[in-house]
Every structure is written in C-alpha cells, then in structure tokens.
Amino acid sequence: MKILKIISKLLSKISNLWLLRDYFCHSLLNKKFRERRKVIEQFDENTLKQKWGCSDFEERSFPTLSNFKTDGWFRFMYQRYLMATRYTREKTVLDSCCGLGWGSFLIAMNSKLVIGVDSDLPSIQFARDVWKSSNLNFIQKDIYDFFKTNKISFDVILAMETLEHFTKEDGIRYLQGIVASLKSNGIFIGSSSFAETREQAEMQCAENPNHLYIYTEKEIKELLNNYFENVKIYSRLFFLASKKKQKN
Fold first, then answer.
1. What pLDDT was estimated at residue 221?
2. 59 part of a folded domain
3. Structural domain of residue 76, as residue ranges?
4. Contact 155, 183 (CB under 8 A)
5. CATH code for the domain in which residue 169 is found
6. Could you say which of 39, 186, 197, 238 would form a disulfide bridge with 234 (CB–CB 3.0 to 4.6 Å)?
7. What Å distances lie between residue 180 and 141, 143, 186, 190, CA to CA?
8. What pLDDT, on a 0 to 100 scale, did the predictor assign at position 17?
C-alpha cells in the first residue's frame, strides 16, 4: 500500500512538471517573459493594496500573493498565459474578465494587440496605470455590454478563471458572445477547475460564494462542443477550442 502511495505521488509530481513545461522553458529561455515577470513581481500584497486601493484578493488573484508563493500555485498562474502565448503570436487577443491585468500584460509580449476587459473600475485603473505596453489596452465594461458593442473580430479570446463566476445560464450567454467576437478561424483558451463529478462540483461551489457554477469535465466538454470544435481539456484545469467552421 505504501509503495502504491509513493508511486501515485511520484506520478502526480511528474504530471505537474509536464503541465508546467511552458513556465520552466520560458523562465530559462524567454528574456521577454523574465522581464515582464520582474515587473509583475515588484508588487507584493502591501504594494498592491497601496496601488490598487483595495485589499480583497479573494477573486482578484495575483501571482505574488503569499499563499500562492507558499504552495507553488503561482507557477500554474503564469502557466495559463504562457500556454496561450503559443497561439497569440502577432494575433489580436481579447482577455475577457481580465482582473488586475497582469495576464494581459504577459500576453502582450508576443501579440499584435491585446484588449483586457473587466467590469471592476479599480482593477482596470490599476491595470492602465502599471502595465505599460504599446499594444495593450484596458476597457472597463460589463463583458455582455462589451460583446454587444464590440466591432473587433479577435483571433484569440481568453477566459482565465472566468467561467465559474457565471450562472449556468449566463455562462451560455458568455460563450455566445465569445463565438460572435471570434474570427472564423478563432481560438478560445481558458482555465478553471473542472470537477470529476457533479457532487464534487457542488461542494466546490459551496466553498466560495463567488463561484456560481462549477462544471464537471464532462459538462464543459459537452458545452464547448456546442459552439467549438477540436475541444481539448488538460488536467481538468485548462481548455483549448477552435471556432466551428461555417457550413456552406
């Protein structure tokens, strides 16, 4: 029994190392990433409070927060966006519900244009003030209103830690807005924590009042397949999908 536990832990560590390959590779080889990470990591919890003017980090996550540094989760936070950079080179990108904007800042290191949208005014003011890049813009707007008035077709749309903040019905509206805003060959990339069972999903929801609906891995696959093709789920944490091609 002990041997099985040791093997299980070892396989888990190997899986995490594989999942974090972008983070380790970029840390070693990508000068632009190291420079932008240095800018991000000048903000600890105290400087964030002073600059942002708020102290509620529950749903405005930032990779330098002490709990993420302690448990190593900050690497996965970077990994979300670094994985996306495989698809964003010289592309027009929407970072929907971008929060404090540090991820948009990372994506801008290889994109043609990045627009970060969030409904929270203090977060957008913070992002505009600190993340300086000529190809990066931030808009303070409800995401549904943005989709209604948006005139830009995006190559890539990101939804990092976003889906769980919508009800099941609003999540469908959100995905419909994404489909309408993507180019014909557009890509949708996101992250969330997808439960194995509906019971586990309900338990996760009960732990956080800001999480309105948690999908199981099966549910998110079925939902994404309604609007996209080539749907891929990685380790119940990340997803990647392409806009369905229109039939002639």
1. 95
2. yes
3. 2-243
4. yes
5. 3.40.50.150
6. 238
7. 17, 13, 10, 17
8. 66
Q: Which residue has the tokens 């708020």?
A: 54
User: CA 73 to CA 154: how far, in whole Å?
Assistant: 29
Identify which of 124, 68, 53, 74 has the alpha carbon closest to the alpha carbon of residue 95: 124
**Which class for 119: exposed (0-12), middle (13-18), buried (19 or more C-beta within 10 A)?**
middle
Q: Which residues of the chain have pLDDT under 70?
A: 1-18, 55, 58, 247-248
Main-chain phi, psi angles of 198, to 5 degrees: -65, -35
* Length of the chain counted residue by residue: 248
Distance between CA atoms of residues 100 and 118, nearest Å: 9
Q: State the pLDDT at residue 49.
A: 86
Cα–Cα distance between 126 and 73 in angstroms, integer?
Answer: 23
In this prediction, residue 33 carries a pLDDT of 96
pLDDT of residue 50: 86
pLDDT digits (tens, 9 = 90+) for 127-162: 999 999 999 999 999 999 999 999 999 999 999 999
Q: Structurally, how many domains does the chain consist of?
A: 1
Residue 171 makes CB contacts below 8 A (sequence gap 6+) with: 163, 213, 223
Question: DSSP letters of 65-95?
Answer: SHHHHHHTHHHHHHHHHHHHHHHHTT-EEEE
Is 248 within a domain? no
